[in-house]
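Fold this: Tetratricopeptide TPR_2 repeat protein
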Amino acid sequence: MAEKAKQRDELGAKADALIQEGKFAAAIEPADACARLSRGIDGPKHWRTFDAEQRLKLAEMAKGFPEDKQQKLRDAMAAEAEAKNAETAKPQDALKLAQTARDRYCELLGEETLEVARIWHLIGRIDLGMNNANGAKDANKSALKIRRKSLPVTHPDLGRSLNNLGFAQSNLGDKTSAIDNYQKAIRIWKAGLSANDPLIVMGLNNLAAFQNSIQEYEEAKKSYTEILAIRQQTLPKDPLDIAQSLFNLGDVQNSLREYEAAKKSHAEALDIFRKAYRKDHPNIATSLNNLGVVQYALREYEAAKKSHTEALDIRRKVPLIDRSYVATSLNNLGLVQHALREYEAAKRNHTEALDIRRKAFSKDHPDIAMSLNNLGLVQDSLREYEAAKRNHTEALDIFRTALPKDQKKIAASLNNLGNVQYSLRDYEAANQSYTEALAIRRKALPKDHPDIAMSLNGLGNVQKSFREYEAAKQSYTDALAIYRKALPVAPPTSP
């Protein structure tokens, strides 16, 4: 059977090549043989048989065209081929060529033929490449409408249209429709293809990436776990594909605070990358960075320091690397050094990260705010309160401008500013910062979240300084109740 399937595929490829060359009469014999073999292998209703029969019908129909219509068909196919070739390098040219091909196919074959659907699909793909999500959405809807009328329900091209429509909808923020279409595409591919087909993996990967981006971490974890299982069972195994799946799974586990599982996934991915790449490969640095982030979350600070130091060393050596990656490593190493109370080293690294980010990004970029925030925390630890106040104030201004909807970051920035204002004995300002941070956190977080307790604790300190002892007692009591529920360890002491 495998030999017959190979023969069928070769005959189909030969017929396709002859059709592309405009040799329609010559294409009939291999197209007919391919269709007969497909009926015997897959049955008369399989999508492969459908494709083979469509190929034969096109060759027979084109053979019967007068010469001028045959030439128009050749021109349409040539425009389609040129559009595909130009798709990446010259997308605007590719779009014009695809539109020309579509119009010619419509004129020759009709507006709702599979050839026209194929061009709509191509147009949608080109639009996606040019970040024209609305155009891609419309084009893929047009392709899908035709394909639903014409194709068997398990045909992979139906899945392709649904997948690309989902991709466009995800770019437009249409969460429900995007997920629905990704899932429909995956179901079609699972019904019509082998269990480990690359299209299934691609669909799951698109779904998982979108679920991750909208913080549906449990669902993303299921999708990435399924991808990993497929890749581990596929022969021959591709170690780098497996490593990438482990890497993606580790990131989601980290977001779910499943730190031990994330550490295991990232460590396995790193081991594969080390075997596959030279020791200074950028992918090794990225893997080390993400492992270090998890080690930091687990309070394995020495291990995290080692991982981030190695990642930074690699990134400094890579020629033409985006300097923002160096800044990320400096930032993460600085966080670990701060946790280890290596304050001067942490200050140096956060300062360098900030310098890089100021040069690389616009003045109100969130990464600049993050560096200012982290530098301010170190300066607070060094009792450089005025410098810390300046940096936290600037960070807060940027967060308010750049991320007005990210109330959690704004609240954290307010809380950090409040800590410094308290240390400077600017109690009125600290009271205002803590109060605003607390109000935001109570709206944005579960009622027993430790961050709420942190703001209550800071507010209690200010109230105590104002000799508002009853209010301070209430704030401390509320904070303590949250800490006892939320944390397995003792709450932090007052600053």
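The chain is about 80% helix and 0% strand. The two ends are 76 Å apart (CA to CA).
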